[in-house]
Design goal:
The complex is a heterodimer of chains A (about 120) and B (about 110).
Chain A lengths: L4 E3 L2 E4 L5 E6 L6 E7 L6 E7 L2 E5 L6 E5 L5 E5 L8 E8 L11 E2 L3 E5 L1
Parallel strand pairs in A: 2-11
Antiparallel strand pairs in A: 1-3, 3-8, 4-5, 4-9, 5-6, 7-8, 9-10, 9-11
Chain B lengths: L3 E4 L2 E5 L4 E7 L6 E7 L6 E7 L4 E4 L2 E6 L4 E6 L8 E7 L7 E2 L3 E6 L1
Parallel strand pairs in B: 2-11
Antiparallel strand pairs in B: 1-3, 3-8, 4-5, 4-9, 6-7, 7-8, 9-10, 9-11
Classes of the chains: A mainly beta (about 120), B mainly beta (about 110).
Amino acid sequence: ETGVTQSPTHLIKTRGQQVTLRCSSQSGHNTVSWYQQALGQGPQFIFQYYREEENGRGNFPPRFSGLQFPNYSSELNVNALELDDSALYLCASSLKAMGKGSEKLFFGSGTQLSVL
Amino acid sequence: GENVEQHPSTLSVQEGDSAVIKCTYSDSASNYFPWYKQELGKRPQLIIDIRSNVGEKKDQRIAVTLNKTAKHFSLHITETQPEDSAVYFCAASRNNNDMRFGAGTRLTVKP
């Protein structure tokens, strides 16, 4: 059983640029959630993807967007980067059963994004 | 949406003592309450969880209690060890579709 993997591990961008972060879900999982974790804070929910569609969104602007692929892997895209976007971006996978909520979240190690 | 508050933000205990971390939530429809442990530079890892149809759950030195009426839940760690030192996060969600986390508690266990 493979765990949740994220790439890249670290990334440095400048303000105004665009970034794409990638996540491979744990084997057997069909749902991916993305979180932003600022230094010293708890993870903040960005959105969740299930069956290649957005299935819930937190309080983040539209310049945060995502995709889920048929193999359940996912991308997080952030346009027009701002300095405050500097954070650890965590991906978590889970298994959502038909008609039920997702089970336990398993996190990847994250991508540390620095916006200069 | 759900709002989760966590206290204290830092907690220091002597090895062997107990540690208690408390969280409150706002959405009465929340039904799943996990706790995560995050060591420095590592990913959050699930240590215990509880569903709204249960009032208490225990796993060795770790226990979680839930009071649905008061909308609060707590993590209890007994016989603490230095390796318990980490940041602990509580979270709440409705069917795990939209999990919201507390701000975290930095636990330090002094040998």
